[in-house]
Amino acid sequence: MRDLKHLIRMEDMLQQANNELVREAREEGRKAIGYTCYYMPEVLLDLPGCFSVRLRAPNCTTPTMATYYMSGRTCHYGRSLMERALEGGFNFLDAQMATETCTVTCRFQEHLQRMNIIQNPDFFVEFTDIPFKKTENSVEHYKKQLQAHVLDKLHEKFGIDTSDEALLKAIEQHNEVCRLITEIGNYRKLAVPTITGYEFSVIMLTSLTCPKDKILPMLRETAEELKTRQPDIKPGWKIKVAVAGAENDDPDFIKLIESCGALVVADRYCYGSLPGREEIVVNEGQPPLDAIARHYLNTSCCPRFMPQDLMRGRKKYLADVCREYNADGLIVESNKFCEYWSYERTIDALIIPRDYDIPTCSIEKEYINSASGQLRTRFQAFVESVELKKLHGQTAKKAD
Amino acid sequence: MKYFGGCDVGSTYTKAVILDENGKICADTTIKSKINSEESAKIAMKEVLDKVGLNSSEELAYLIGTGYGRNKVPFADENISEISCHAMGVHVTDPNVKAIIDIGGQDVKGISVDKDGTVKNFAMNDKCAAGTGRFYEAMARSFEMSLPEFSKLSLSAKNVIPITAQCTVFAESEVITLVGEGKPMNEIAAGIQMAVAKRCFVMAKKAGATDSITLTGGCAKNDGLKQAIEHVLKLKVIDLPTDPQLMGALGAAEFARQKGLAQA
Fold first, then answer.
1. Is B118 part of the contact surface with chain A (CB cutoff 8 Å)?
2. Chain B residues closer than 8 Å to A385 by CB
3. Contact residues on chain B for A331, CB-CB shorter than 8 A
4. Average pLDDT of chain B to the nearest whole number
5. Which residue has the higher pLDDT, B40 or A336?
6. B120 CB near a chain A CB, below 8 Å?
7. What CATH number labels A236-399?
8. What does the DSSP assignment read for B148-201?
9. A374: nearest CA in chain B?
10. Which of B81, B116, B120 sits opposite A377 (nearest CB)?
């Protein structure tokens, strides 16, 4: 396929958290606000005068120093973030909007708060408590938390305008990003997709890690470009897969899967677009913060919610995603020591093939994938088994 | 007569098999792997080609590479993962086998096999040498024995001295301590076999293996391990009529035969 015009620049921007667009926005006097979890609504951090940066740990080789503080038996992602913080990789941050969600990222943010790691005198960390249920009480609690710990703090510390008008403006910009990402992602549903999983992953990640106003022109152009992009005459993939699971912000992980013959057509993982790139709907007369709280609480598929109906709903959602995106199989991954996804992955690997007849490959990985040889063998074997079964199925149908 | 080849470049041994059009094994070999995978493949392939009177891999109707160095097999038409190849190799050797525990030089895999020889499910150990061929090499070294000697040592044990460390390095230290304390060597060896068998148990269960299990890979020839696995799984492991270490190469050759004949 013809190269996407902005892909190389976008790849470059993922090489460090303090990328060229982040630097540009800070030079304009805007505040860089870090966060790690979907439950910290990025739209609140993208108010005029500040911008959101979802933290990744590019260039982290091994979290040796972080392991001293956080123990070796904790999630590699949280430790890698800590390592990059200790190395000075997040000194550009003006604030960290932390969430009490998964334990290790929470611990990482507590270290930021207590250890004076970030070399920025204005830097502060503020924690928001996230509910474990999706009831009306939970929405009220969530709203109060967001008001007190995000909006009020941004206003108090940086003088950010947090009025309803400013929120509506931020929602408008956020929704445009969501529309474009969804439009770009929909090309993955085609019989022969005109975008690879790797390319989409790079685009999606830049939308999380760069100031929205600065990445929007590139997203618009990419969406336009894709309208006329033609697929390769002889595509290199053998099967299509959906990837689900825990935190994954590594496009090379997607590239590794694709190099084994499985085109990644859907991304239901933390830092993926499903769910996460749905537009926020503000009904007539509804306060924007109420719409935001409901949106983030209700769209999430995070395994931290334990009610049976939500757990079953998550499996159905995965099966629906596989069907909608014409995936032949599902790869479900989790990072080692991930507290929520370790259970969810195990259950998914049992339920999805049994109840939905979708071949499933279960992978426990590290944040930094040094063992690519072993992963390659697993993915290749999975692709071969799905491909052979497809071929045998077609042969049997012909024989009937 | 057309010939079809499979070359399994493992981390410790490289194996090659040549089949004829009817699926009969015409030649096979097992050599110690070199540091360079391509060189290992060349040597192994030359040996089997010589046996059937061919001059080069190019004269084979189809050649498939598998194993850790599968991308490095010269003149290979394609490569297939060792998981699929072991399943196919075992299937053509004994179609009654439903599950495999493959213990190679650097990893342990549990594979459940479908009726058509394809992989139903599989599980693989993490990036760790515990319970693999490398682990046994280290243990045999601690006992100052050859691998074949060590593999039979536990068979005479009346008791099992449990080994707590799973890590190759720590297990070696633990074994040296136990030997130093004067504990019976065969009972320590039985503890080692039991520790590895338990790891195999996990892999087999993860892959969904319930019965009709066989062992493949170099460690399949380890009698003490086989006995321990039968003990933990509470079933009799199926013995294959062909060298279990050749299953990956045989499966690759069988895939090559099917693909080569389909192309013709």
1. yes
2. 84, 118-120
3. none
4. 90
5. B40
6. yes
7. 3.40.50.11900
8. HHHHHHGGG-SS-------SHHHHHHHHHHHHHTT--HHHHHHHHHHHHHHHHH
9. B127
10. B81
Q: For residue range A50-77, list pLDDT tens digits in order.
A: 999 999 998 888 899 999 999 888 999 9
Min Cα separation B91/chain A (Å): 14
Beta-carbon separation of B81 and A389 below 8 A: no
Q: What architecture does CATH give domain B97-239?
A: 2-Layer Sandwich (3.30)
What ipTM was estimated for this complex? 0.76
Measured distance between the N- and C-terminal CA atoms of chain A, rounded to whole angstroms: 38
**What is the residue extent of each domain of chain A?**
236-399
Residue type, B181: E
Judged on CB neighbours under 10 Å (0-12, 13-18, 19+), A18 is: middle
Q: Which chain A residues contact residue B118 at CB under 8 A?
A: 384-385, 388-389, 392
Residue of B83, B114, B116 with shortest CB distance to A381: B83
Does the beta carbon of B81 lie under 8 angstroms from any beta carbon of chain A?
yes
Note whether A381 contacts B84, CB cutoff 8 Å. Answer: yes
Quote the tokens at residue A360. 């499933």
What are the residue ranges spanned by the domains of chain B? 1-94+242-264, 97-239
d(CA A315, CA A352): 7
All residues of chain A having their beta carbon less than 8 Å from the beta carbon of residue B114 are 389
Question: CA B231, CA B1: separation in Å to the nearest integer?
Answer: 46
Determine which of B79, B121, B128 to mutate to test the interface with A (most A C-beta atoms within 10 Å): B121
Q: How many angstroms separate the CA atoms of B207 and B192, rounded?
A: 23
**Tokens linked to A60:** 């982290």
pLDDT digits (tens, 9 = 90+) for B22-74: 999 999 999 999 999 999 999 999 999 999 999 999 999 999 999 989 988 98
Q: Of B84, B120, B124, which has the smallest distance from its Cβ to A374's Cβ? A: B124
Four-residue CA torsion sign, B141, B142, B148, B151: negative
Residue A312 structure tokens: 């079953």
A336 to chain B: closest CA residue: B126
Would an 8 Å CB–CB cutoff place B254 in contact with chain A?
A: no
CA distance A365 to B26: 41
| Helix H or strand E segment including B99 | strand B99-103
What residues of chain A have any CB closer than 8 angstroms to a CB in chain B?
Answer: 364, 370-371, 373-374, 377-378, 380-381, 384-385, 388-389, 392
A44-58, A256-270, A323-337, B116-130: segment of lowest average pLDDT: B116-130
Q: What does the buried/exposed string (b/e) look like for B224-245 if buried means 16 or more CB atoms within 10 Å of the residue's CB?
A: bbbbbbeebbeeebbebebbbb
Q: Which fold has domain B1-94+242-264?
A: Nucleotidyltransferase; domain 5 (3.30.420)
Fold match, B1-94+242-264 / B97-239: yes
Residue of B84, B116, B132 to mutate, testing the A interface (most A Cβ within 10 Å of its Cβ): B84
| pTM, to two decimals | 0.86
What was the pLDDT predicted at A370?
Answer: 64
CA distances from A334 to A231, A345, A367 (A): 31, 7, 9
